[in-house]
Amino acid sequence: MNAGSESDFCRQSQSSSSSLAWGAEVRVEDVRAWWWPIKLPLVSGGNNAAVVTNEREIYGEVEVEGDGDHAGRRKWLLRGIKARAQPGRLLAILGPSGSGKTTLLNVMAGRVEHGSSMGLLTRLGVEGGVLYNDIALAPQEVVGYVLQHDHLLPHLTVRETLRYAGYLRLPPSLTRQRKLQIVEEVIMELGLKDCANRRVGGDGAHGISGGERRRVSIGIQASHAPRVLFLDEPTSGLDSYTANKLVSTLADLAHQGRTIVCTIHQPRSDIFQLFDDVMLLSKGHQVYYGPAQSMLDYFQRLGYVCPTHTNPADYALDLIAIDLRSPEVERASYKRLAKLTAQYRDAQQQQLQQQRDLLDPGTAQAAHSKEARDHIFNQMKQQHVNVVVQMLVLVARAFKNIVRDKMVIMVRLIEALLMGVCVGGIFYQMDTDNVASLRSRSAALYAIVSLQPYLIMLATIVQYESELKVFSREYFDNMVGVVPYFMSMLLTSLPFSAVLPSVFCAIVYWMAGLRPEWEAFLWFLLIMTVMQYVGEALGYSCIALIRSFGPASLAGNSFATFWTVTAGFLLNPISFPIYLRYIGYTSPFQYAYAALAVVEYKDNEYDCPYPPENPLCLYFDGNYILSQQNLIFDTLRPNLLIVGAMAIGFRIIALLILVLFKRKP
């Protein structure tokens, strides 16, 4: 490929008058993928179990590596896949569950790195070539990928969702008016005009239908004019009518010159008729690839005749599926599948000889030309939206989504009110003229400093569980970076982080009868606001690492409980085992409690019911009470600075987790 054609390749996707650019041919050359090591147990059934396992190994699904009953086994996910997806045609990848459909789609879309990547327990290996218009490049820049599940912000309208996607994906060289025009073209092409001003919904919020949500997900990927559009199970969860309508839309888009590839589990006959090309996979092997209308003729030539009035897709999938009803039937299924695979491989070789090799020497030279790849990459980099624009767009989008979520705002406001009333009611107007009431003040301060941040942590985990799924999708689509997203998350939370502690503190402080001075109240409010940030930061860290509410909240609960116990109020640190004694220094509750105690007791004289010269009046001296607290620091500044440093530190930890542990949605 010469330099001129390389420039055209990028320029078409940037300046096409259509919102979806012309398609690109995708060539898959001998792609292989595997997991290693895994522990595959033998199938139950006595001697037959060894026969079936042998059949798996002969067929190539499993290769044993090592000795003994617990030998590591390499499980093949894909074996020598060769195909091409062409512009103007809709290619459907069909196969039973576990056949490798999504793995192949991810490899074609560049969402799985070639070579070997280590996981916690297994290693994923990928080999082979994927070319886009005869160029070997990282395809994330030129493809759109629609996930099986829709991850969208529920309180934005369809038009707003697509506009924000356009601001993040379209080249900065385009004017704002042109970007809005492209979004309107996408809305019209995908049939979203009637619901364009309705909220997307989801996560318990009322909104558009499932089919319309799927079209919005397609529109997000279509907004940047991708050369190829990949879709993973686009009809999953949709009723038959909606599924047919969606695939019909995909077929129309493909016939306008786009390249569209989708996986689909078990399509109805009317949906199957919409496919131009079909690839059948089973246990990682190709069983058929070619025109959809020629599939039954191909199997008929092999001696497998589809009965009349039978869905061609159902017949083909039944033919290549592994029947597990008994070891004998399973063994027969593997043998039939091995035969079909070998027959297709022979037919494929003949076809390639008649046409040409998928990767001839001239193409290989152009594909692996460093100059060609660098030229394209440089053009792509020039079209990226800078981090400042990303952050501004994300802040505007997140703030609009949060403000419209009236239910969450009301719940968090009511939580602050109720918690303030409950704690304030328990410690209502504590006396100042008896020792027991003075001790209750310390208990009140500790309850305040430990309960409210804990609830804030849980609320943060709930809120950002769904939002992180949106971030993961956008990150792997090269729409946003980690730092712009994280900064936007912090900025949008600032107003709520200031208001909610104010509501809680205004109630609990005066109800409990704490030090009746405005300066003391303002210090109290500042400390609790910083602890709000600590609770949020801990929630960020837990959900960023685990990405699921149950385990993330369990991790947060564990940290909070541990810090509560080791903070020194419930138990004297001297009584701790030596290996736990110094861990209490990591507890933010310890320093926040110390700061509140300084605000409450420092230079404060309580009402001693005895004559001033009575030694018992010492117990009513705030400085004496403070000296008995076993505090690490008995002044305000170091405690407040440490709590503030922890609020910042936990946020940095959350940022590092997002950077180091990137999770695909």
TrEMBL record:
UniProt keyword list: ATP-binding, Membrane, Nucleotide-binding, Transmembrane, Transmembrane helix, Transport
Entry superkingdom: Eukaryota
Keyword match Isomerase: no
Membrane-topology descriptor: Multi-pass membrane protein
Entry's Gene Ontology cellular component terms: membrane
InterPro entries from the UniProt entry: AAA+_ATPase (IPR003593), ABC2_TM (IPR013525), ABC_transporter-like_ATP-bd (IPR003439), ABC_transporter-like_CS (IPR017871), ABCG_dom (IPR043926), ABCG_transporters (IPR050352), P-loop_NTPase (IPR027417)
Domain ABC transporter: 62-308
Gene3D superfamilies registered for this protein in UniProt: P-loop containing nucleotide triphosphate hydrolases
Cellular localization per UniProt: Membrane
GO terms assigned for molecular function: ABC-type transporter activity; ATP binding; ATP hydrolysis activity
Pfam families listed in its UniProt record: ABC2_membrane (PF01061), ABC2_membrane_7 (PF19055), ABC_tran (PF00005)
Ranges annotated as spanning the membrane: 407-428, 443-464, 485-510, 522-546, 558-580, 640-661
Protein name from the UniProt record: ABC transporter, ATPbinding domain containing protein
